[in-house]
Design brief:
Elements lengths: L6 H16 L4 E7 L4 E5 L5 E5 L3 H9 L3 E3 L20 E8 L2 E12 L17 H29 L6 H24 L17
Antiparallel strand pairs: 1-2, 1-6, 2-3, 4-5, 5-6
């Protein structure tokens, strides 16, 4: 089975990719557990960690369904150290949406925005340029598709049925299409942000 299957493999590897994209030191990726109404992620030790769903900057981003740019997490009234990254650096918190229904948020990622410091010179909000927005948008779509693939596989497995490989193949084809688009953006701008040259697809991680 392809390495993207298994949240305990997918999420830590995706966090590493996100760190490379943003050249950052800290990142977290959470998935919503609808059945138990919680958030979960996998730590470096591979163990599942559960969190309260509607709390912190993370919870606010899930509820709103739009990316949130935070200048200083400690100064944000929504900040909750139980779920949010503890840092005085700018943060980006980005919802992961079901590609078949963009009104449904299935997860969220949060990452330090080292480059966002430049946007604090003239504004109170850190900013992203067009390339950075495109990179994170493609990453979010790629990751959301991989998470959906895992959910499909896990659901079929739990029901004791043989996996519907045609359905999975179609889902993975969509993910590969997003991967190619993301790679094209990186190739075009590799002189602008050298750190992005390390970005590979989640499937090859």
């Amino acid at each position: 089975m392809n390495s993207i299957f298994g949240m305990s493999n997918l999420l830590p590897r995706a966090e590493k990719k996100l760190l490379a994209i943003m050249n950052a030191e800290k990142a977290r990726i959470f998935v919503i557990d609808k059945e138990n109404e919680t958030l979960y992620r996998y730590g470096p030790d591979g163990k599942r960690e559960n969190y309260v769903l509607n709390t912190g900057i993370i919870g606010s981003t899930i509820a709103i369904g739009e990316p949130e740019h935070t200048a200083n997490a400690y100064n944000d009234p929504l900040f909750n150290r139980m779920v949010d990254i503890e840092t005085s650096m700018p943060l980006i918190t980005w919802p992961l949406k079901n590609l078949s229904n963009e009104n449904e948020v299935i997860g969220v990622f949060q990452v330090m925005n080292v480059r966002g410091i430049r946007g604090l010179v003239h504004t109170t909000k850190p900013t992203l340029n067009q390339l950075e927005n495109e990179m994170l948008d493609f990453f979010a779509k790629q990751l959301a598709q991989a998470i959906t693939n895992n959910m499909i596989y896990d659901g079929l497995e739990l029901e004791g049925k043989q996996a519907n490989f045609l359905e999975l193949q179609r889902a993975m084809t969509r993910a590969r299409t997003l991967n190619l688009s993301m790679t094209n953006i990186v190739d075009k701008e590799n002189n602008t942000h050298p750190a992005e040259n390390n970005v590979d697809t989640l499937e090859k991680a």
